[in-house]
């Protein structure tokens, strides 16, 4: 029993329970344990279930964590990867509701490693369906599909004796009770670690590849982002089901891939990024979830917060210019449609530290190649820092219609006040690259000081 407390409106974005009010304890708040005769009437479990089909409802925004119930059908093996935020461990499981809708669940960290053992302990020697409740889940949209992910508040309950589980189990009569436990690859962890370094190529190596001999092969390239070409926009209107670009009609939009006359439209990334190392410069495409991995924001969020203009780059994207990553790329299908060598990023990893390089986390600031570089892009045109005549790619692989191209010209690199380092003038100070901004302001202060000192001497 809790008494003497304050009540106010819930203002936080992630609420553990769907209630608009919050209890705040004060110095006078009293918490007392209830007598047994009263506590026996208090339920041991209390959930706020959300149906699978209602997880993406817009009026759910702000309700934060959710509880879901379903039949456990598939358990995927643990996957260890090395990403921009360092090593991560995850496991996917799948739930099915009474309408045969499937919901992917992603378990992270300790939740991923402990789930299989707990499942086997709870279900050993029991030939019955596993009805499981995941409580305190975060709802996310990944490539237009709804998924739930675990967090610090997540707990799960298998076949517990409550009315909701008993009713669900009774409705499963006649259905398969099998849970598919997919085997893991013993070398998966080692393979994930080697993935960021395997088949390493320079930009020059990539540009010399024969697309017919290397179609389907993945390569890694350690390079920095030199520019983002917005000639064809940085996002497109995609179908939430198939992720393909939608076609404009007199009544709205249609998805020719799904034959859906009224598809749900989701903004999706189509970043046309110019990467550069000391050997050359080329373009790569970053779509959907791969782009989200770098930007760490969804395209829908940026469109809603900044501008729906497909040509105007938001600050979150401008801040990527000058940053260095390891890109895992493959030859894009567009190569064979256009006759121009194009690459598409499949994954992005944090770049290894270099001696003398100042790191700022995943988005480390990277020095320019000494003396600048004059390189050959994928069109075969010779390009230098003073002329970035970029190849104009007609359509993105997702099939989205795009605006007519514009020409972009980048100026030469300007020397900074830091000895032996250069600052690309194309990277704006407000782009989020603090190192570049500080050097630029320092240079201005030194110049003003020199002018004042000269004037006083005269």
Automatic annotation (TrEMBL):
Residues 371-385 have a biased composition (Low complexity). Belongs to the replication factor A protein 1 family. This is Replication factor A C-terminal domain-containing protein. Residues 355-458 are annotated as: Disordered. It comes from the Eukaryota. Residues 219-337 form the Replication factor A C-terminal domain. Residues 64-145 form the Replication protein A OB domain. It holds the Pfam family Rep_fac-A_C. Transmembrane segments: none annotated. Keywords: DNA-binding, Metal-binding, Zinc, Zinc-finger. GO terms for molecular function: DNA binding; zinc ion binding. Residues 443-458 have a biased composition (Basic and acidic residues).
């Amino acid at each position: 029993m809790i008494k003497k407390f304050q009540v106010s409106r819930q203002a936080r974005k992630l609420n553990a329970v769907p209630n608009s009010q919050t209890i705040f304890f004060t110095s006078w708040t009293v918490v007392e344990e209830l007598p047994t005769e009263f506590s026996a009437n208090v339920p041991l479990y209390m959930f706020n279930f959300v149906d699978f089909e209602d997880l993406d409802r817009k009026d759910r925004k702000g309700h934060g964590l959710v509880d879901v119930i379903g039949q456990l059908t598939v358990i995927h093996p643990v996957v260890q990867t090395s990403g921009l935020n360092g090593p991560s461990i995850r496991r996917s499981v799948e739930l099915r509701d009474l309408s045969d809708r499937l919901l992917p669940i992603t378990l992270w960290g300790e939740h991923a490693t402990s789930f299989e053992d707990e499942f086997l302990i709870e279900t050993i020697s029991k030939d019955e369906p596993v009805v499981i409740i995941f409580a305190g889940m975060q709802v996310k949209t990944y490539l237009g599909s709804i998924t739930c992910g675990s967090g610090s508040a997540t707990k799960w309950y298998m076949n517990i004796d409550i009315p909701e589980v008993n009713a669900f189990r009774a409705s499963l009569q006649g259905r398969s009770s099998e849970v598919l436990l997919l085997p893991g690859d013993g070398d998966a962890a080692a393979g994930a670690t080697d993935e960021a370094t395997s088949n390493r190529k320079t930009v020059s190596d990539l540009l010399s590849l024969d697309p017919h001999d290397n179609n389907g092969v993945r390569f890694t390239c350690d390079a920095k982002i030199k520019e983002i070409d917005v000639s064809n926009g940085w996002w497109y209107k995609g179908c939430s089901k198939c992720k393909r670009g939608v076609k404009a009609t007199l009544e709205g939009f249609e998805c020719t891939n799904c034959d859906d006359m009224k598809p749900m439209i989701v903004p999706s990334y189509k970043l046309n990024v110019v990467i550069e190392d000391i050997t050359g410069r080329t373009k790569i495409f970053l779509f959907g979830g791969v782009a989200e991995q770098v930007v760490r924001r969804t395209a829908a969020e940026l469109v809603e917060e900044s501008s729906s203009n497909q040509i105007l780059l938001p600050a979150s994207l401008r801040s990527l210019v000058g940053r260095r990553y390891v890109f895992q790329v493959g030859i894009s299908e567009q190569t064979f449609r256009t006759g121009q060598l194009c690459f598409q990023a499949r994954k992005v990893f944090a770049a290894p530290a270099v001696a003398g390089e100042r790191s700022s986390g995943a988005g480390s600031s990277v020095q320019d190649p000494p003396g600048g570089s004059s390189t050959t892009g994928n069109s075969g045109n010779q390009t230098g820092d003073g002329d970035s005549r970029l190849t104009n790619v007609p359509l993105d692989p997702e099939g989205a219609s795009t605006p007519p191209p514009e020409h972009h010209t980048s100026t030469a690199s300007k020397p900074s006040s830091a000895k032996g380092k250069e600052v690309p003038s194309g990277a704006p100070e407000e782009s989020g690259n603090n190192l570049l901004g500080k050097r630029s302001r320092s240079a201005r202060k030194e110049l003003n000081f020199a002018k004042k000192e000269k004037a006083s001497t005269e």
